[in-house]
Amino acid sequence: MAAKVLCEAGADVVMLEAGAMWDTEKDSRMSAWAYDSPRRGASTAERPFGEFDGCIGGWEIEGEPYTQAPGTTFDWFRARMLGGRTNHWGRISLRFGPDDFKRRSLDGLGDDWPIGYDDLKPYFDKLDRLVGIFGSAENLPNEPNGIFLPPPRPRCYELLIKQACDRLGVTCIPSRLSILTRPLNGRAACHYCGQCGRGCATHSNFSSPSVLLPPALATGRLRIIANAMAREVTTGESGLATGVSYINRTDRRDYAVRARIVVLAPSACESARMLLNSKSSRFPNGLANSSGVVGRYLTDSTGLSVSGYIPKMANGVAHNEDGVGGMHLYMPWWLDNKKLDFPRGYHIELGGGRRSAPSFGVMGGIQRFNGKGGYGKQLKDDYRQYYGSTVSFSGRGEMVPNDDTYCDLDPRVVDTYGIPVLRFHFKFTDHEYLQAKHMQDTFRQIIQELGGTPLSPMPSRESGYGLEAGGRIIHEVGTTRMGADPRTSVVNQFCQAHEVKNLFIADGGPFVSNADKNVTWTLLALSMRTAEYIALLRSQLSL
Questions:
Q1: In the chain, at which end, N or C, are there fewer CB atoms within 10 A of the end residue's CB?
Q2: Structural domain includes residue 457
Q3: For residue 263, what are the β-bridge partners?
Q4: Which pLDDT tens digits describe the chain residue by residue (543 residues)?
């Protein structure tokens, strides 16, 4: 986003990409069958979500370790390709609402942002028009309306869930996904192949290589250097940034680019790592880190899932469940936390139906309750009876930042390029565990309202109620948070470093809090706002 805005404003931009180039038309496997692969599409080390997944990377990358402080777990997902995780994500595109920017004022926890919803609303609107998003205007207090394309029709199992939620008083509305249901800006509407995660060859869903980089390249002002592993931000005698040093992953040699303005956007944790590794006599604790805040206030979305068997959906008639590669309905947060025993909410994502091949995992769950399973004709009959009879619910909630969750540099470990690696410290608190219990109770209640049975027992408090480990939801933000006070923040309200006026951060690092919403849409709006501010500043800074 920053490259697009700056190139269109007349700036010459060099982009360093740690991975290889990626073309969604040529490199994605959107229409490949599982049997096209000797592994039948199963996951690989560099594609943990399936061999044909659109993201090259994972929680473990050979030669690029990270460490975890004793007694803590944070699993860090990284991408090594042009466009990064935008090639793979679920396209759930939720605006942060007015309350999300002032949580401390509402419940006394964490900190308020130095900006509010009204500051970002113009950029959300421009983003909707540029990228395209489907949804519906619901006029909910903290779930702002957008500029929506028509949503796809709910599938059968989604309609059943909607009916059950209506009876329980759980808000259930059309999803808000950045997938085109009508042509927009020269891009075709989705043709409902259901393979969004593989990378879209028709550019019908959002990814940076499909939507943001083509117009930037069309200006002739963008140069992309692939396989460039950034090491540090270089600075001059004045204390301003002068460029970035990097290692070419192919020849393992050191290089550098000079720049009048440096924008970091490699992800929240990678930005923290670069700043911490950018040490000098002027910045002994890392660049822009005299406050000691770099790496602090790391958060990830909370998350867990529950599946259930719904007898009324058994013996279903074979039929298409056409639609986008994601849910057509979802549940935004619908309750008042003041009446609950945890402070922040969550939204619910739906799954189920007949949109993929039957799996032995599903049959294993059915077998526990029905004694079914086997080989030959019995197995086929079981599939015919039970395929499409399960639903799943995944919660994605807000974690409150805490002092025990952060990343710093491991003093002893370096990666294959000789760059010190991150060490993670992570801790959920009772805020998150009580939220997880509410998720478990709610999902099981909906399954029971559907006349079904959960496919797993209720987890214990000792197991964290089934809460996924930090990093597993891949919504990490924080580490270089914004604020008005340089003593407690890294960047100002325009994501400009307090101590280095020509250094900006345009990823999730400046987030002050992590709402009960997927972060990408707010990240993109914030990056657009930051880049437009840079364009206005260029003449003032003589840059």
A1: C
A2: no
A3: 504
A4: 999 999 999 999 999 999 999 999 999 998 888 788 888 888 888 899 888 999 999 999 999 999 999 999 999 999 999 999 999 899 999 999 999 999 999 999 999 999 999 999 999 999 999 999 999 999 999 999 999 999 999 999 999 999 999 999 999 999 999 999 999 999 999 999 989 999 999 999 999 999 999 999 999 999 999 999 999 999 999 999 999 999 999 999 999 999 999 999 999 999 999 999 999 999 999 999 999 999 999 999 999 999 999 999 999 888 888 899 999 999 999 999 999 999 999 999 999 988 765 555 555 555 555 566 667 888 788 888 888 899 999 999 999 999 999 999 999 999 999 999 999 999 999 999 999 999 999 999 999 999 999 999 999 999 999 999 999 999 999 999 999 999 999 999 999 999 999 999 999 999 999 999 999 999 999 999 999 999 998 767 555
Q: Please report, for residues 187, 202, 267, the alpha-carbon distance to residue 183 in angstroms, rounded to integers and kept in the order given.
A: 6, 11, 30
Tell me the two tokens of residue 462: 């000792």
- Eight-state DSSP code of residue 387: T
Single-letter code of the amino acid located at 67: T
The overall pTM is greater than 0.85: yes
Answer whether residue 58 is part of any domain. Answer: no
Query: Which residues does 155 contact at the CB level (< 8 Å), separation at least 6?
Result: 321, 323, 328, 353, 355
Concatenating the DSSP letter of every residue in 463-517 gives: TGGGPPPBTTT---EEES-B-S-TTT-SB-TTSBBSS-TTEEE-SSTT-S---SS
Q: What distance, in Å, lies between the first and last C-alpha atoms of the chain? A: 20
Beta-strand relationship, 390-397 and 453-454: unpaired
The alpha helices in 226-290, defined as continuous H runs, are: 268-277
Residue 282 lies in a domain: yes
| Residue 426, domain member (yes or no) | no
Write the CATH number for 505. Answer: 3.50.50.60
Following DSSP, what letter does each residue of 326-381 receive, concatenated?
S-SEEE---S-GGGSSSS--EEEEEEETTSS---HHHHHHHHHHH----SHHHHHH
Which range of residues forms the domain containing residue 22? 1-32+75-131+205-296+477-543
Q: Based on the structure, what is the number of domains in the chain?
A: 1
In whole angstroms, what is the distance from residue 24 CA to residue 493 CA? 34
